[in-house]
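Bug #77: duplicate submission created two jobs. Keeping one. Sequence:
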Amino acid sequence: METPAETKAPALKEMFDAARFRFVAKELQTIEARFDAKRFVGLSLEGLDDLNLMARMRRMTESLHATLPGTYRQKIKSLRALAPRIGHGFVTLVLPDYVGCHGLDDFEASLEALKFFTAFGSSEFAIREFLRRDLFRTLTTMEKWSRDPSEDVRRLASEGCRPRLPWSFRLDALVADPSPVVPILENLKADPSKYVRKSVANHLNDITKDHPAWVLDRVNSWPLENADTLWIVRHALRTLIKKGDRRALAVVGAGERAQVRLDAFSVEPHRLKLGGRLSFSFRLTSLAAEPQRLVVDYAVHYMKKSGETSAKVFKLKTLTLPGHASVAIGRQQLIKDFTTRVHHPGRHDVEILVNGESLAKDGFELIR
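Kept job's structure:
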């Protein structure tokens, strides 16, 4: 008998399982009497077991298109009625997906639908189809969204036009030149919603990967005395700060070289089995009479399959250290495989970075 510890969590694709398709069919039947529920289920479930998560969502999109009666606008009316009944944030992504697949020739109705659907999940992926088709017309509407009372709609205005949105294609025009999104970012630079601010920060962080000076010039003109704006800027510059960029560090008050001594650096254990927990600690002592703003990060130099290493920088602590004071800092990290990272045996160094400068390095041997 399988014990609870051995029971695996259901695969993500099971969000679109047979029961979900039947549920949607049943709900649509009550919304639109002409809807062919039997055909919808038949089209949807054929070969379903072999499809991954995104393919299952697209299967639902195309099955809806094949079986909902009426014109495009009539189908959207039925899907708007369906939206509050689905009851699952990710599954509702099928609704904007339908718009992105079948609504490109009806700009006004489609963008109004995406604005409506985003409150139930998110329309961030579908809006990109319209940006790719007609960038400036779509951005004009999104600028209006950035002034909407709804935080969901304001967030869509920023998230949807990120140049490098994860799980989506790049918007090459905005990778090359981010200036068309300036009105949106300006409208949201002090947004009261953390949900929106996080999107703005991620949007700016995307841009730093191609135009770091452009971002730094812009945020330096923002009202950093505003706590909401400062939150955005600190998170927006995280990649540059991890790289030790002096201008980015200066924005958060840590642009000067740290006047500190690092002692008692310890990395344990020195031999670690995959799945084990790494611990490290050290002490920083100020060598200055005045308080110092310190950004403390650490890098793990992961062994690659090729035998070379690749460093990943992690945030550790941001603090103001009083003159001649000391502070003890430590961290534990579980070393296990993830979808995005597979570990390889060998020497892994742990490096301590203070205001972008490497102050100590030690390591451990990873064994299988």
